[in-house]
Design a protein that fits this description.
Shape: elongated
Number of helices: 6
Largest sheet: none
Number of strands: 0
Structural class: mainly alpha
Strand content: under 5%
Order of helices and strands: HHHHHH
Helix content: over 70%
Length: about 190
């Protein structure tokens, strides 16, 4: 508990709460649309084994996660060190061992973890119907169609979260993000089908 309070304090002085939240939503959205694209691509292609579809989607999910972690860590580390350098220049003092220095080291790590885990987590949720079907659990519809529905629902819920953050209509925001997913699906059906 003490560690969480310290982390929260360091993130607050680094002004990263909004960045973490934004990265979660943006990259969760990327994960949802990527999985939607892959699943629809498999749906309109020559039928493939469920294990092939799962492995391809899992590979993409892991790649999205690793890309998110590495790109955010590199860019946020540079930004935090730059901001710390400016603060040190203004204060004419070395802040490396201060709370600000610690925050400059911790914030990029947390942002990177959120940036990478969001698309991975969302992708894994979308793949759940495929795993259930592979395990022999009966589903009310084809596992690919069930996964598409999960992707659309998660996209809607990410929009709802955006609406709540922006203090605007959560329903309107959810519908807007859902429409982006539906347009993505339509484009894939048009060009890949």
């Amino acid at each position: 508990m003490r560690l969480l309070k310290k982390a929260e304090f360091l993130l607050r002085i680094a002004h990263t709460h909004e960045i973490v939240r934004r990265y979660f939503i943006v990259n969760g959205f990327d994960g949802a649309l990527t999985m939607l694209g892959l699943i629809i691509g498999f749906l309109v292609s020559t039928p493939a084994e469920l294990s092939v579809i799962i492995n391809a989607c899992l590979g993409a999910a892991i790649a999205l996660g690793m890309s998110g972690v590495s790109s955010a860590y590199v860019s946020e580390s540079a930004e935090r060190q730059h901001a710390l350098g400016k603060l040190e220049g203004a204060m004419i003092s070395d802040l490396h061992n201060s709370a600000h220095g610690e925050a400059a080291r911790l914030a990029p790590l947390l942002i990177a973890l959120v940036n990478g885990s969001a698309p991975l987590f969302i992708s894994l949720l979308i793949l759940t119907p495929l795993w259930l079907s592979q395990a022999g659990v009966p589903l009310p519809l084809s596992p690919l169609y069930a996964a598409i529905i999960v992707a659309l629902l998660l996209t809607f819920f990410l929009g709802v979260l955006l609406g709540r953050i922006a203090n605007i209509s959560w329903l309107r925001s959810g519908i807007q993000t859902l429409l982006v997913a539906v347009m993505t699906a339509v484009l894939i059906f048009m060009f890949a089908g």
